[in-house]
Design brief:
10% helix, little secondary structure
Length: 40
């Protein structure tokens, strides 16, 4: 998992991989960058 402030986030790059049982949702759309807007 990546944080939204990559330069100052304590995310998976710091803590390591997250166990799959901790995942409670899924990504269903992208809105940035503009040329990649879409749904999965």
């Amino acid at each position: 998992m990546l944080g939204d402030n990559r330069g100052d986030s304590l995310d998976s790059r710091y803590w390591g991989p997250e166990p799959q049982k901790w995942i409670v949702g899924v990504a269903f759309a992208t809105y940035w960058p503009i040329n990649r807007i879409g749904f999965f």
